[in-house]
């Protein structure tokens, strides 16, 4: 059966020339379905769980078009691609809710390192032990999803040397998170972190992949992949999601697909290897040299993804979503958004010029998809 899927999308608002402007206080009080982040410059919307990829596409697009229409009424404002404060503004925090004590803690502890935009991909898994196994597998392969999604090569108007500046600076919290061996292990670990103060609340688990649910850590019903930069093109995001779902379907069919039993490394060594792979993917994305979790062999991120694509293609076809997986080939062939931006930057275009082009292209792409596809789905 095709799994339920949903997204949490964080986006910046700003001007057509790329300057980010905080509008979330006005957006959240006026539009249903939008929530604020600690900083006023980005805003989040969440899609309802869907099995059907056509419906998911429109669930991604329609709130965004509603948001565009609203902020255009406020002035000459638009949506800004990318996952960092690309052209400036990282020197100070703009609080969205000054009275929120958790937001105060975040500002004082992390500063603008957390003022990023991203996409969190949620996949429904109701069995808690299957969910833990899926979290283990996707955790050690999360660097591949970062490599596909990287879209933050600039900060404060300069190229940083990282394809995902967001993940290179984002404060993963707590600093060491194990591979959870069981649901009971996860519960004990979270309770200990809360008691020790290394987590402020159950949401304060900022790691590449985490189990999620309505009463964490006890009642869990989904895997949340948190490592991805903002993937502004809905077709590219659905392709990345299809790879994630197909890999989880493969795991469901093959219970032996578990890093705890199929790796030559100990659990602690696997965590260290994964953190190193994440850092490499944040720097070089698809061109990163990674170490495979099974045996430590060296492999390029794009080659590892291509291998996985071949493995799961038949599974995606069997479940009826192979056509949504296939655009992944274009990302492997042409590069992700960060690589495209850096190619233009290498030709002499400023970060602002690159971002301005991306803003215009994004708007045109959304209109095209809405006209061609969502009207058909409706």
Polypeptide structure, described:
It is a single chain. The chain is an alpha+beta fold and 378 residues long. Helix content is 50%, strand content 12%. It has 14 helices and eleven strands. It has helices at residues 24-30, 53-74, 101-110, 128-149, 165-169, 183-196, 234-253, 259-262, 267-284, 301-318, 322-325, 328-334, 337-346, 351-377; strands spanning 5-14, 34-36, 42-46, 78-80, 119-124, 154-155, 158-159, 209-212, 222-225, 289-291, 298-300. Strands 1, 2, 3, 4, 5, 8 and 9 form a seven-stranded antiparallel β-sheet that branches. A hairpin with a 5-residue loop joins strand 2 and strand 3. Helix 2 (53-74) crosses helix 14 (351-377), helix 4 packs across helix 10 and helix 7 packs across helix 10 (301-318). The longest helix has 27 residues, at 351-377. It starts with a strand and ends with a helix. The model has no long low-confidence stretch (mean pLDDT 95).
Q: Compute the gyration radius: what is it?
A: 20 Å
Indicate the mean pLDDT.
Answer: 95
Largest sheet: 7 strands, antiparallel
- Low-pLDDT residue intervals, each spanning 5 or more residues: none
Helicity, as a percent range: 40-55%
The global form is: globular
Element string (H = helix, E = strand): EHEEHEHEHEEHHEEHHHEEHHHHH
Structural class: alpha+beta
| Count of separate DSSP helical elements | 14
């Amino acid at each position: 059966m095709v799994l339920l899927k949903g997204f949490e999308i964080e986006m910046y608002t700003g001007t057509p020339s790329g300057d980010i402007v905080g509008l979330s206080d006005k957006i959240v009080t006026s539009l249903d379905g939008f929530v604020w982040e600690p900083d006023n410059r980005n805003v989040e919307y969440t899609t309802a769980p869907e099995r059907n990829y056509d419906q998911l596409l429109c669930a991604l697009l329609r709130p965004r078009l509603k948001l565009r229409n609203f902020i255009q009424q406020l002035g000459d404002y638009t949506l800004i691609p990318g996952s960092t404060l690309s052209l400036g503004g990282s020197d100070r925090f703009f609080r969205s809710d000054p009275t929120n004590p958790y937001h105060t803690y975040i500002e004082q502890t992390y500063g603008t390192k957390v003022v990023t935009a991203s996409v969190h991909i949620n996949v429904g898994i109701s069995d808690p032990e299957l969910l833990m196994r899926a979290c283990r597998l996707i955790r050690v392969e999360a660097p591949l999803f970062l490599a596909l999604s990287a879209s933050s090569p600039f900060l404060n108007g300069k190229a940083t040397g990282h394809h995902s500046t967001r993940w290179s600076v984002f404060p993963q919290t707590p600093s060491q998170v194990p591979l959870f061996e069981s649901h009971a292990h996860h519960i004990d670990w979270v309770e200990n972190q809360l008691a020790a103060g290394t987590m402020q609340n159950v949401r304060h688990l900022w790691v590449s992949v985490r189990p999620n649910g309505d009463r964490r850590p006890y009642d869990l019903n989904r895997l949340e992949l948190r490592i991805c930069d903002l993937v502004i093109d809905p077709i590219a995001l659905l392709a990345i999601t299809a790879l994630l779902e197909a890999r989880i379907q493969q795991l469901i069919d093959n219970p032996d697909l578990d890093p705890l039993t199929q790796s030559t490394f100990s659990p602690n060594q696997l965590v260290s290897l994964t953190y190193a792979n994440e850092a490499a993917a944040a720097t070089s994305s698809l061109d990163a040299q990674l170490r495979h979790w099974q045996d430590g062999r060296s492999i390029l991120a794009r080659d590892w993804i291509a291998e996985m694509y071949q493995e799961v293609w038949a599974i995606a076809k069997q479940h009826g979503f192979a056509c949504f997986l296939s655009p992944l080939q274009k990302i492997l062939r042409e590069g992700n958004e960060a690589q495209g931006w850096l190619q233009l930057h290498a030709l002499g275009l400023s970060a602002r010029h690159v971002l301005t082009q991306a803003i215009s292209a994004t708007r045109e792409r959304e209109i095209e998809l809405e006209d061609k596809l969502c009207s058909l789905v409706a």
